[in-house]
Each structure stands twice: as structure tokens, then as C-alpha cells.
């Protein structure tokens, strides 16, 4: 019985070790064994621009003027955003900004209040 973790991409149980890497024979994905252990211990931790850990429901402040793509609106420095949601992807904060509406922000441009 194998004690190796399943593939993080396709969840195949048939992973094997190749040196310091783990390999999935079904999809060809390769990852390090230490990376797999860290990822299984805790989910992805999202941090703000100064290193504070963000959680769903937090209040944040924007630290840089951000242009809204596809419009002439700008989210100004110091704008407070309440009740954020953390999501997967490049823009990892989902929120609603007064006067602008629903947006996705990158955590590197915000600070936890």
C-alpha cells in the first residue's frame, strides 16, 4: 500500500517517487515531496502587502490608486473595503466597493485594518 499523496492536479492514486520529485503517470504532473507535505498541512495562506494573514470577512484598505479596467473609474488610496471573500486565482480577494461595485483585488495592493 502506497503512503504517497495523490496527484494535486488529477487526484490519481498512482504517484511515484523520482529522486526528490513525485510524479503522476496519468497526467505527467511533477511536484516536490516537501511542497506536497506543506500544502496538505495547511491550505493556501493569503497575506496582505505587509504580511498579515487575511481571512473571509476582514476589512482592508487599498494602499495604491487602482485603475478599473474597462472604465475611467479609479479606486483611490485609503478606500476601505469591508467583508472581503478570499478566492483562488491571481486576483485573490472578491469584494464590493461603494460607488464602483463588485471587484476582484490582488492581496499585494491592500492592507488589513
TrEMBL record:
<feature type="domain" description="Protein YjdM N-terminal">
    <location>
        <begin position="3"/>
        <end position="32"/>
    </location>
</feature>
<feature type="domain" description="Protein YjdM C-terminal">
    <location>
        <begin position="46"/>
        <end position="113"/>
    </location>
</feature>
<protein>
    <recommendedName>
        <fullName>Alkylphosphonate utilization protein</fullName>
    </recommendedName>
</protein>
<dbReference type="Pfam" id="PF03831">
    <property type="entry name" value="YjdM"/>
</dbReference>
<dbReference type="InterPro" id="IPR013988">
    <property type="entry name" value="YjdM_C"/>
</dbReference>
<dbReference type="InterPro" id="IPR013987">
    <property type="entry name" value="YjdM_N"/>
</dbReference>
<dbReference type="InterPro" id="IPR004624">
    <property type="entry name" value="YjdM"/>
</dbReference>
<comment type="similarity">
    <text>Belongs to the YjdM family.</text>
</comment>
<dbReference type="Pfam" id="PF08274">
    <property type="entry name" value="Zn_Ribbon_YjdM"/>
</dbReference>
